[in-house]
Amino acid sequence: MAETLPPTPSPHQEQETIANGGLDWSIVAAAIVCALLCALGLNTMLRCVFQCAARVLTNPLQWIASRRLNSGLKTNDMVALPTSTYSSSSSQDPNNNNCAICLAEFRDGTSSSTLTLVRFTLYIFS
Fold it and tell me: Is the pLDDT of residue 116 over 60?
């Protein structure tokens, strides 16, 4: 009986196999790096959520007070804003006849205030 030897691969087939194998490993390595970055991001986000939740649950009154202190315009600053009475005939800018917050048109005789740096005109409720 004659022994049959397996066919020897050509050099071209060997290069193709090496190239494809190298590509597969690079895809696997990229997937591992992406999974690691996602895990680190998720870990950071969950730590933040747990810290905030613990702060709210252990000291709710202190948390609410600190949120109020760090938001909005202070009363002293609000009172210090210059106020005026709106009049359509004395308005310098005819295009600026709306409240910057609620977008309602001003009527003659309404109290308004202008934030000078940004030139917003707002209703003043007293």
Answer: yes
